[in-house]
């Protein structure tokens, strides 16, 4: 579109210079007319961006982009889904997992997204789920911002084309996380959650260091080099293990991971595995932010066996990260009060549950009487209890009567829904 407009400007200049010559004037007019028609076709084929939505609505209409999300609130899954607009999420690494996670959060209506990456889009990235061929050569942050703003213009997007493992990049990363312009009254840092979607240990350690220093909750994710497994992990400074508490075996053995890369050899990449890991990452992000369900402390994924292992990872008291040790001390100081508050909340919720049966009636007409309460009998009763059974056999109805010791009989009545037989008891 930009190139076409520049050519039109050049044609206009040519038209001005050829005004005295009528033959040149007609040729220039026809050329301009052709350009305008071409630009009109381009404008019609361009994607139409919707206008911004001021408030989320639960109204069920085709023109409401949030109706299916707000249904979670109507169904009782989430108390207040519209709160998602208050949250800021930082995504470090806009690759196979990070770009898809960014798209999912954008479609969910997250309030603000911060995107970090230093790489450019290449044709080798086209096996992923997000980038398009016409974006080759653009920085991943610019390409992501372009696509995400078209998907949902309500989301505030901030992109940073930088390498967080450099001194300057790390300082900019820290400064952007501290920025509270989106929510000035927010406690702690300026973001609610950091998602690490990088593919190397050095970058993960940079995210780990920043989050430990800022006391920032974050989630780490990764996909194996053979592209058939992956994982996500929740890291809360002081409460759970940080990334330095239990380093990978390769790093713990003293091998520099950069020496493992060979010329002409690259890691495998499957969009299916990356899509699954990104989905697990965003699902747990939503559960953490909107406070529903149970957030997994660690969740693995093995696509070969469809195996999803989970585990808890406690902090290492001898961690090599000084900021992690400081957060552990702070957590131990507040832990007793937090545990007491959790117990009090559970007790209050237990008291609020009404006593009695969960269902007062049921489609099977089954009723149960507490056997701890003695069976009351009429004073004129003989004390004998009879059980009458009526059943259908060969299209004939049969009735039997059996006397039962009243002391041992429990008052239970059962009616079979198909009415093939009927069991009752009487006190005679």
Automatic annotation (TrEMBL):
It comes from the Eukaryota. InterPro entries: D-isomer_DH_CS1 (IPR029752), ThiF/MoeB/HesA (IPR045886), ThiF_NAD_FAD-bd (IPR000594), Ubiquitin-activating_enz (IPR035985). SUPFAM superfamilies: Activating enzymes of the ubiquitin-like proteins (SSF69572). Residues 66-320 form the THIF-type NAD/FAD binding fold domain. One of its GO terms (biological process) is protein ufmylation. GO terms for molecular function: ATP binding; metal ion binding; UFM1 activating enzyme activity. The keyword ATP-binding applies. One of its GO terms (cellular component) is cytosol. Signal peptide: none annotated. Keywords: ATP-binding, Metal-binding, Nucleotide-binding, Ubl conjugation pathway, Zinc. Belongs to the ubiquitin-activating E1 family. UBA5 subfamily. This is Ubiquitin-like modifier-activating enzyme 5. It comes from Populus deltoides (Eastern poplar).
């Amino acid at each position: 579109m930009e190139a076409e407009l520049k050519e039109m400007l050049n044609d206009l200049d040519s038209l001005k210079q050829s005004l005295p010559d009528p033959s040149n004037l007609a040729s220039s007019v026809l050329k301009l007319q052709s350009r305008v028609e071409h630009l009109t076709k381009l404008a019609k084929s361009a994607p139409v961006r919707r206008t911004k939505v001021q408030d989320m609505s639960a109204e069920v209409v085709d023109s409401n982009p949030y109706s299916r999300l707000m249904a979670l609130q109507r169904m009782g899954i989430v108390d207040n889904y519209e709160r998602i607009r208050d949250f800021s999420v930082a995504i470090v690494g806009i690759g196979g997992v990070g770009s898809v996670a960014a798209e999912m959060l954008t479609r969910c209506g997250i309030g603000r997204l911060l995107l970090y990456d230093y790489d450019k889009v290449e044709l080798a990235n086209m096996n992923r789920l997000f980038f398009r061929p016409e974006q080759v050569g653009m920085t991943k942050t610019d390409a992501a911002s372009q696509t995400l703003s078209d998907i949902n213009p309500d989301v505030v997007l901030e992109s940073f084309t930088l390498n967080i493992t450099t001194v300057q990049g790390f300082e900019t990363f820290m400064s952007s996380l501290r920025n509270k312009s989106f929510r000035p009254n927010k406690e702690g840092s300026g973001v609610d959650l950091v998602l690490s979607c990088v593919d190397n240990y050095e970058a993960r350690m940079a995210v780990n260091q920043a989050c430990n220093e800022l006391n920032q909750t974050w989630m780490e994710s990764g996909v194996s080099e053979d592209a058939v497994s992956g994982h996500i992990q929740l890291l809360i400074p002081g409460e759970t293990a940080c990334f330095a508490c239990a380093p990978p075996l390769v790093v713990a053995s003293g091998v520099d991971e950069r020496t493992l890369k060979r010329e002409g050899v690259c890691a495998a990449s499957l969009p299916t595995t990356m899509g699954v890991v990104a989905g697990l990452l965003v699902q747990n992000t939503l559960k953490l932010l909107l406070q529903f369900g149970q957030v997994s402390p660690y969740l693995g994924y093995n696509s070969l066996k469809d195996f999803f292992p989970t585990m808890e990872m406690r902090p290492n008291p001898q961690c090599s990260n000084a900021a992690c040790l400081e957060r552990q001390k702070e957590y131990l100081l507040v832990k007793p009060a937090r545990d007491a508050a959790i117990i009090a909340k559970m007790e209050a919720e237990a008291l609020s549950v009404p006593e009695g049966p969960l269902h007062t009636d049921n489609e099977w007409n089954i009723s149960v009487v507490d056997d701890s309460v003695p069976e009351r009998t009429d004073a004129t009763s003989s004390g004998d209890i009879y059980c009458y059974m009526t059943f259908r056999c060969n299209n004939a109805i049969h009735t039997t009567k059996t006397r039962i010791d009243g002391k041992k009989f429990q008052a239970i009545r059962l009616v079979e829904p198909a009415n093939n037989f009927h069991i009752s008891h009487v006190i005679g």
